[in-house]
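Example 3.2
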Amino acid sequence: MRRYSGDEIDEMAAVLKADGVLSVPTDTVYGVCARMLSQKAQDNLRHVKNRPLTKAFPIMCADLSQVETICEVDETSRKIMQAFMPGPLTVILKKKKEVPSFVNGGMDTLAIRLATSKELAALIKAVGEPLYMTSANQSSQPVCTNLDEIEQQCPLLDGMMEGSVSFGQASTIVDCTKKDLPILRQGPLTKDQILSVLK
């Protein structure tokens, strides 16, 4: 399986534009990604991971301005994203009506992350749309911790970006569509840290 260096952005973007699936390092865990606006790319990603149709994928955007093209961003969610993203945080936001329903199984929300490295931001911009981004593993199995494990668990991948991860723990998920900002998954960031930027 081909392993790309972080500066081979155009080559990796070409794979994704052709509905391929790549493994990439994020700040929390290794991820696998595919382009957001293609049903075929999503199907390919599900096939790589054996992920059930009932589970929607998180979305990774290059920057806040790209988030605003697909989601409703209010003052609270903007403050949280500006304080902690890029970083080990996923925010749940209302999806804009123009985003196709297949992207998230017909739900009215999206789970959003911001690119956690300059290489990932450059890759998303080169593809020209946000990416589905989920952990590198078979569905319901432990997250892979290195490229050899990923290649063994996800042999149907179209390639891998080299690099390392730091937290080794999945991101904190906060639901910004609800006033009390419930934490849906505890990760490196705590609710107290998140609320501190809103005072």
